């Protein structure tokens, strides 16, 4: 069923005064503008405002994520650097079996340099509170010339593994066989990795000390 549009009698408009025609034209144009605003412009404006708000929210979220990613990259880089440093330190901590061999090598080194090992008394190993290393102390007493003892301590200081000397005490010098010698006592401590930290590579490659 079709709907017939109302007909407009244009002849009747010819008799309408010009001022009324102008008023009718203004009303007609105003009605068209109002209809366009309410049915087209206003919904589109609301949609544009909503899109602008969503765009602003997405930009803020993007900036936040960018900052987080930047900080995450920095944290990852710092973590990798710490892992590298920790790995280097672990390489200086041999397994306990190797540390025992290292102490024996230190003793042999002293003999080769000309020191008389008067006392070599290992103490029981003790784990550090951090659980990162084990201390293996030895109470040592040697007799020899000053320069020989100094060379011995210098060689210990140059070891690739961590070995420290503490509690150093030197007795009164005396002449033996035409040379000045003294008794020197000290605590020698070798540091080893706990069994859980020692790697197969460390166990397979024991460190050696020079002549």
Kindly describe this structure.
This protein has 211 residues and is of the alpha+beta class. The longest helix has 74 residues, at 18-91. 54% of the residues lie in helices and 22% in strands. α3 (96-113) runs antiparallel to α4 (146-157). The chain starts with 9 loop residues before the first helix and ends in a 7-residue tail after the last helix. Strands 1, 2, 3, 4, 5 and 6 form a six-stranded antiparallel β-sheet that branches. A hairpin with a 2-residue loop joins β5 and β6 (179-192). It has helices at 10-14, 18-91, 96-113, 146-157, 200-204, and strands spanning 116-122, 126-127, 134-145, 163-170, 174-176, 179-192.
Keywords:
alpha+beta, 6-stranded antiparallel sheet, 6 strands, rod-shaped
Describe the structure concisely.
This protein has 211 residues and is α+β, with helices and mostly antiparallel strands. The protein is built from five helices and six strands. The protein has helices at residues 10-14, 18-91, 96-113, 146-157, 200-204; strands at 116-122, 126-127, 134-145, 163-170, 174-176, 179-192.
